[in-house]
Design goal:
By secondary structure, the chain is α+β, with helices and mostly antiparallel strands. It is built from two helices and eight strands; from the N terminus they run ββαβαβββββ. It has a single domain, classed as Archease, Possible Chaperone, Chain: A, domain 1, CATH 3.55.10.
């Protein structure tokens, strides 16, 4: 099974991410989101950004994680290609996002994601495997 898959949703787009652990689920959700923005094979690990978040529940934590990465992309022009979640609980996350400064000639941008939404948001564990559905506003 893949780490994530793209799902179409009316005028928006989303991902369904999978993971054997909650850590890998959050890493794969971030990878899935950035695969919509740019081909991840074109992104180098030139910089590392630490991320530490707290939220009221697991679903909100996922949205906050993805929105933080999207903010760093938009505000600092950093494109990410790799993610390592160091610690995670239902309400806390400590991670590192690896990437580089955006180079519009080399990083051909695809989807223009404006925000991570709560529409159809789902984080579940079934048959010992984690799954999340996230829809993005484009």
């Amino acid at each position: 099974m893949n780490d994530y898959e793209i799902i179409e949703h009316t005028a928006d787009i989303g991902i369904r991410a999978f993971g054997d652990t909650q850590k890998s689920l959050f890493e794969n959700a971030a990878a899935g989101m950035f695969s919509l923005i740019c081909d991840p094979s074109l992104v180098r690990d030139a910089v590392a950004f630490p991320v530490s978040l707290e939220a009221e529940d697991r679903e909100t934590l996922l949205v906050e994680w993805l929105n933080e990465l999207l903010f760093l992309f938009e505000a600092r022009s950093i494109i990410f290609g790799r993610f390592e979640v160091d610690r995670i609980s239902e309400v806390r996350l400590t991670a590192t996002a690896y990437g580089e400064s955006l180079d519009r000639e080399r990083h051909r941008l695809m989807a223009d994601i404006k925000a991570v939404t709560y529409h159809m948001l789902r984080v579940i564990r079934t048959d010992g495997r984690w799954e999340a559905t996230v829809i993005f506003d484009v």
